[in-house]
UniProtKB/TrEMBL annotation:
CDD domains found in the cross-reference section: BRCT_DNA_ligase_like (cd17748)
Pfam families: BRCT
Cross-referenced InterPro entries: BRCT_dom, BRCT_dom_sf
Organism: Pseudomonas orientalis
Limits of the BRCT domain: 127-180
Descriptive protein name: BRCT domain-containing protein
Length: 213
């Protein structure tokens, strides 16, 4: 279920294997689409068409992730607000990747390694509990992740508040999470937790283990 391990195998930023001009073009395109903080339906359709024309033939986890998410979001040819925000986060993570990596460092998306997850990890109770998702989920589109736990009786909140029981952080992230678009939700949850609110911050890997064993 967890696709995150595939990202370490990415060939996309390996200059010996892929046309650097294509890499530069896609990173620049992602940066341009996210510059105003909004990704529209038209922009998403344009990006999918560009990938169809230029890079969809590549067997690369980074490209596959981007293309599969776009395809799922655009099944109805409309990008709703949640999909727009998820795509914005994905493209920002993508455009933040350096084109040149130090020798010996594997390219790909980087999972945050200093996130303030609850320790020990709590058991997750679904029925009647309020969840918020943030970041990019390796499992799939956020609405699919939400549907999985709604089937088990969980409730979905639009933002972090005292009423929320769990904040689930997607495993596809950015090392500089404090400065990312989803870092504000994490910091808000930390503040509430330190003030005594019953909110737990958990990673996607724990969320998946509780769901699938």
């Amino acid at each position: 279920m967890d696709l995150h391990n595939e990202f370490e195998k990415s060939k996309f930023f390996h200059s010996a294997r892929i046309d650097r001009r294509s890499a530069d073009a896609l990173v620049g395109l992602a940066a341009g689409l996210t510059a105003d903080g909004v990704v529209t339906t038209g922009e998403a359709l344009f990006l999918k068409q560009w990938l169809d024309t230029n890079l969809v033939h590549l067997d690369d986890p980074v490209i596959n992730l981007l293309y599969s998410r776009l395809s799922s979001m655009l099944q109805d040819n409309v990008l709703d607000a949640d999909e727009s925000q998820e795509l914005l986060s994905l493209l920002r993570s993508f455009s933040g990747l350096p084109l040149q990596r130090p020798k010996g460092v594997e390219p790909g998306f980087v999972a945050p390694n200093d996130l303030p997850f609850n320790a020990p990890e709590p058991d997750l109770i679904w029925d009647g509990k309020m969840f918020v998702f943030t970041g990019i989920m390796a499992y799939g589109p956020r609405k699919d992740c939400q549907a999985l736990i709604e089937e088990r009786g969980a409730l979905i909140a639009g933002g972090v508040s005292k009423k929320v029981h769990y904040l689930v952080v997607g495993s596809v992230g950015n090392e500089q999470w404090r400065h990312s678009s989803y870092g504000t939700k994490i910091m808000k949850a930390v503040e509430l937790r330190e003030a005594g609110a019953p909110i737990a911050i958990v990673g996607e890997s724990h969320w998946q283990r509780m769901l699938f064993g």
